[in-house]
What does this fold into?
Amino acid sequence: MTNPYVPSVYIPPTGVVVPKLDPKTVKVGDEIPKLNRYGDYQLWNRYAAVNYEFAGHHMDDSVGHHEGFEAAIGMGPFIHALLHVLLREWVGEERGRVVKVGMQSRRPWIRGRTLSEGGKVTALREENGELIVSLEVWGDNDKGERLVIGEAEVALPA
Amino acid sequence: MSEETLISPEMAAAVGREYEWSTSYPIDASDIRRWAVAMYYPEQPPKLYWDEAYAKTTRWGGIVAPEEFNPFAWMRAEPPGNMGPEASRPWPELNLGIPCPDFKANIFAGLVVNHTGVRMRPGDVIKSAVNLAGYHEKKGRLGLMLFTTREDRWTNQKGELVRVSRSDLIRYL
It folds into this structure.
């Protein structure tokens, strides 16, 4: 069954005020605030427009059907790029930086589903004057299915 | 009886070879602003990516690109007219000059990117060098799956390493 049609003017609410990483209190096991994005052409076409990524299965439900999906699917590299946004909103793009983002795909991001990305601190270390925070990261859809898993690192001046 | 494989002797011998080199056009502040708008939509992107006066007050000393920024979209300066693998076929055998295995479809499997801390800024020119990092196979619900790993190293006009990425593509019969 296909997902219901979503009007292109629909802009869903996303996120809340995001607390920032505090290097004095961060600890292993901390979870970071989630990043939510509703998967529709409004969102995906903006990414296609900056990354020149116009494969039919991202732009057209019928191509998605032809390839065995319920509808059009989101771009894997975009999910990976959004993990950077997730991390920067937590570390603070003006004071910290993203060091590493690794991601493996498990399921496609189907049009009409909300992607919810999150992360959990797994390790802390100091290296070359920076505090390096390692995290487990993931992306789920609003049915609770895991779409991607991965690992990441962010850095702050120590 | 030989085991089923999609990896030919020519493919196995090509592992480790560089096979694709590109140079970006100079990065423009508008490229960074548009990228940031797309990444943060429907929210407004941070000023670091579009307000030069503000960005000068930060530790970065001016506008920088978000780490995941792609300076190679919408054509490359070298090779002239090249639109990049996103616009064509992302598998390496054609560029390596070796036969391509038969397959029905391909899907993105994963990506690991290491950012060195050297930021991309307006005016920078980025060079990319891609090598074939390896092949491996697995049997899964799609049948025999061929994983191809490519490693892409980006350097700026000063020769500074900006990022190293390894991406996996799955092809299956």
